[in-house]
Design brief:
By secondary structure, the protein is an alpha/beta fold. It has a single domain (36-321), classed as Rossmann fold (3-Layer(aba) Sandwich). The chain has helices spanning 3-24, 77-83, 87-95, 119-122, 127-142, 156-167, 231-241, 301-310; strands at residues 36-45, 48-57, 66-70, 98-102, 149-154, 174-178, 199-204, 215-216, 227-228, 249-253, 256-261, 269-274. The strands form two sheets. Strands 1-2-4-3-5-6-7-12-11-10 form a ten-stranded mixed β-sheet, with helices on both faces. The longest helix has 22 residues, at 3-24.
Amino acid sequence: MNAVTIGSLLAGVALLAGLALNYLFVPKRASPSLNTSVKQGMLKIGGHARPYLAVIPHDLPPNAPLLLVFHGSMQTGPGIRLASGYAFDQLAVQHGFIVVYPDAYKGAWNDCRTAAQFPSQREKIDDVGLVQALIAHFEASHQIDRSRVYAAGYSNGGQMVFRLAAEAAGEFAGLAAIAATQPTDDNTSCAAPSQPIPMLLIGGTRDPIVPYGGGMISLFGLQPRGTARSFVDTARYYAQLNGQTEPPLDSGQPPVGVLRFAQKDRRPVVAYTIQGGGHVVPGPASAFPGLMGRIERSLDAPAVIWTFFSGLQTTSVSRSEK
């Protein structure tokens, strides 16, 4: 093998290594200096220690809202905090609420999909109980406003949001799911949700894991996790749950389309479609590996989610009223 051939091979290897790094690399961002306390805590649920991270503004107002943010599979609470560019932290300071990032059991939430088969599902981990315990904890420790408790989730965390819609909707004033679509009826272990709940959805048309048009969810063709509805059908599913009977308003400008089910006296459903978007949290500071697809920087998903939540009429009741 001559020097030219060896040089070409080395150049090819270097190119492939560079491409691999580009697809796998996630830029690190330092945590911003904010007027908050960042506290690590733990609750024991069903014999399991469940860690969480809470970001609490120093000047938190009385009766503040609470936002729970659920990470995707193979992530952690701190991981989704970084991946979303610490945007929820900054919103917490700007608008005066607590944001909590809990950790799933062994890397994944016990969502409703029968085909997923995470350890949390096989071991029947009580993630709904964890959520209720977290709400009760912050109600006791910080006197949060129980009528303004919200949850947002990404990927497997979005599937956890769908489980909460089915089994604990009364705990929340609003929910949001990113890069997640409703499981089909033959791929769910949960009863259908029965209580109206405001829902915001964000999905990309080129999501490599969750097909925008519906079908089999999988990790790039591996580890199939069962079928799910299309993104638009998921929006219609929750609109029907909420008693929305009028056609949605179609707005937005490319590359972001918006469907709004906003019939008066009905809980709203809003769905943001990212043309060419991947399996990511859109945002100007979001950080995901390239293999997850394109990040739309013009849509600040955390800000859109909080605007949706803060614009809702609070309908939840206190625990004493249930």
